[in-house]
Amino acid sequence: MRRLCLLAIACIIATLISHPALAGGYVMIDGGYGGEHDSGSFGVEVGAIKKASENHRWLIGGEFSMIFIDENPPDYLDYAIPHGDYRTLDKDYYDGEEFELCGKVGFEVIKKLFIIGGIGGSWNKKVTINQSNVTGWYYIDKEETDANVTGMGELRYISDNGFAIGAGYHSRRGVVVGVGFAF
Prior knowledge:
Blueprint: H1 2-18, E1 25-34, E2 39-51, E3 57-67, E4 86-88, E5 93-94, E6 98-110, E7 113-132, E8 138-158, E9 163-170, E10 174-182
Antiparallel strand pairs: 1-2, 1-10, 2-3, 3-6, 4-7, 5-7, 6-7, 7-8, 8-9, 9-10
């Protein structure tokens, strides 16, 4: 978790430093529900807005998000079962939140209204659990990282005073709505 937070902070700092004097940038926070896990999610996005022509602008940004997966695997011991009398549970569990990094690009189709697309990757821990027929205790059988390619589309309105609001759909997070400001 600590490494992921440091990675997110590094991405945000890199985006801010790469844009001179913070002019023409934006910051958004968003939340969503639905998608692959039918769960809630939260994200933070930063980026830059540049003039493409006299009447249009484009934006480029990056987002770090997490999905609050509400699967609760039984409490398990973090080692293999010590004997052969067991059964494997019928499902694999996602143990903890799913994290994502996503790059976004958008274009102002009419004044103040942007159409945005993005692609990224997400990951989380997936475990297979066995239950001892002798003690009834749960043991880990297999642990792996579940990685996925993600995609999203969004419409975003950015007013003259810098207020920004957007709504869209994300392949893993479902319907997403965000607010923020441009500077």
